[in-house]
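Handout for the seminar on molecular recognition.
Each group receives one record of this type.
Step one: identify the two inputs.
Step two: read the structure output and locate the region that could contact magnesium ion.
Step three: write two sentences on what you found, then compare them with the reference statements printed after the record.
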Amino acid sequence: MNELNQACEAFRALLEEQLARIEHMDSTKVDFSSKPVVTIGIIDGDGIGSIIMAHAVKVLETLLADEIAGGSIVLKRIEGLTIENRMALGQSVPADVLAEIKTCDVLLKGPTTTPMGGKMESANVTLRRELDLYANCRPVSIPEKNIDWMFFRENTEGEYVLGSRGVELPGMAVDFKVTTDAGTRRIARAAFEYARNNGKTRVSIVTKANIMKKTDGKFTAIAHEVARDYPGIEVDDWYIDIMTANLVNEAIRDQFQVVLLPNLYGDIITDEAAQIQGGVGTAGSANIGDRFAMFEAIHGSAPRLIEQGLGDYANPASILKATAMLLRHICRTDAAQRLEQALDGCKLTVDVGASTGAEFAEAVLQAL
Ligand code: IPM
Ligand code: MG
């Protein structure tokens, strides 16, 4: 059967490509505390992107005014990562845009629309792969409920890496999930290092290894191997289904600290966690690699809000939290703290539902 042979050939090519990917995993980290010039790429994205990004840029310009004037920080606007341009060119991230992006150290990015169906990959997925942003760090904290979670989601493998490259046979479709030793080791190490450096005493590994025996089985085994280097940190295993229940179980949820998961489970559970915190509009997200890093809101471009003419009410808290994470990542700790404190304060004083994003952002600027 011709189709079957073609599918087998396609699968062989995918396997070869994935084996080659392991060979090229970068491992030299940039030291931002001593880098003379740090370039921050600014990407608006689609939908509510340009609205919330304008607030974030104002905040960066305020906090980093001296460094921008002195040239040690450069804010560089990257154009062309819009759904219109991407569709016109048929590229999820146009080649010239990617080249510009690679001249930056870190990116602050508004949400980008992913066309449903069709062949075009999500710009996020392309960027995470091209920049090798393997650690997706998503904090969720609700002090009054004693909740302080940090999710470490593997960001370049699992169901995502070949998500646009499954195969179809008559009457059947197959997608692939890929988990590598090296890819798992580096995300597990990132989670345990974070735990150790931030006084956390517990890392919870979340998979569905009872069903996805090879891939999630490997993820669990390697995570435990890494855990042996961190004897002071307690490790426990959960399956993703019960973990989604745990997050709404008030009797135990405040005991979770650092959660380590493969890509797709991490995607799903961090939306749940963000909702518990007050909605996806309240959660920031860091995509960290050894060379590059990208900071963004956890949510999408909210086309419905734009269609209803309500773009001005988009909550900029998520992108501002991402901005604080960016500042921490580039070792601008004081600026990060000022922003975090301002955000905490405004959470109490501004009624986000009733005020516009601009009113909220203005309150944050005042509080800096
Ligand atoms: C996220 C988003 C992305 C993902 C989409 C936009 C591709 O949901 O960052 O969580 O699935 O990872
Ligand atoms: Mg998501």
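Reference statements: The two ends are 67 Å apart (CA to CA). Residues 267, 271 surround magnesium ion (ligand 2) (CB under 6 Å).
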